[in-house]
Amino acid sequence: MWIPIAQRERGRILVLFDVDGTLTPARKVIGDDMRATLAALRNKVVIGTVGGSDMDKQMEQLGSDVLTNFDYCFAENGLVAYKNGELIAKQSLSAHLGDDVLKRLINFMLGYMAKIDTIPVKRGTFIEFRNGMLNVSPVGRNCSQEERDAFEKFDLEHNIRRDFVNALKKEFSDVDLTYSIGSQISFDVFPTGWDKTYALKHVESEGFEEVHFFGDKTHEGGNDFEIYTDSRTIGHRVESPEDTIRILGELFLS
Length: 254
Ligand code: M1P
Prior knowledge:
Elements: E1 13-17, H1 32-42, E2 46-50, H2 55-62, H3 66-69, E3 72-75, E4 80-83, E5 86-90, H4 93-97, H5 99-115, E6 127-129, E7 134-136, H6 145-158, H7 160-171, E8 177-180, E9 187-191, E10 210-215, H8 225-229, E11 234-237, H9 241-253
Parallel strand pairs: 1-2, 1-10, 2-3, 10-11
Antiparallel strand pairs: 3-4, 4-5, 6-7, 7-9, 8-9
Helix pairs in contact: 1-9
The structure holds 1-O-phosphono-alpha-D-mannopyranose (M1P).
């Protein structure tokens, strides 16, 4: 059982975490060391997730008890937001963009992907329609772990995702969209401003004295960049979940 926020030693401090590459290896499950570190941390400060993925994937990776193990869970960059296990906000991409724009976008993406012939394999689920974003994967989201790793390597050499994003930017210069290459096989597309800083809207009125953010994709174009460089956060760049544990130890647990 965790200590109520008011009784935590440093309960005016909020520590937010990216998921893939920060709390877990990309798309894999959380380790026992990280679980124990977060449980100890939660006795001192307030903790939350800010993932690019949807809530189902946070549950797969962080456990079905994720909503009770974190004070805040922000999925899809905070477009879906939970506080103390309760849903507090949900954004809608279709309401924001309108179906005409969405259809144009999806038709273009499917057409573009149909013409990519260089990648070694294609599987299924090329576009995942989420509450607040489209997640687009040229290899297909239901590829195996081996195919996922192979695509990432291939993409590093051949820039499939970078070229795809450039084509989208050109074709949809009239729509204010942001394209974010988050992890291994896909990129996210969402209205500009709906990046991870969106999650900060939900904590602004809570009066935290410090908001820390831990992430691995903090370079420009990475999906942690905006929140990591935001003036409202103290950003920590990590190389891996082990690195996150090390920095937490130094800052909060020693
Ligand atoms: O959390 C980072 C990214 O994780 C997944 O990326 P990929 O499947 O390409 O490894 C996706 O869920 C993506 O939306 C998310 O940004």
